[in-house]
Design goal:
3 helices; single chain
Length: 60
């Protein structure tokens, strides 16, 4: 590795890419709508009837 010139920049670039990805992910998670998160978290507990009622309420 010592014979390859310019190779020391690749770990820095990889670190920056991963860091920016995770910062973006954290920002996206904290700015997500709480109502949408509640609806998504209740999906496994709902049966088909509740989902149809929720969908019909959205169109109003």
């Amino acid at each position: 590795m010592e014979t390859i010139s310019g190779i020391e920049i690749y770990p820095v670039i990889a670190l920056l890419i991963f860091f920016l990805f995770f910062v973006g992910l954290v920002l996206w998670v904290f700015t997500y709508k709480k109502q949408t998160l509640n609806e998504l978290s209740n999906l496994p507990l709902n049966d088909g009837k509740n989902n149809e009622e929720t969908n019909s309420n959205r169109s109003l």
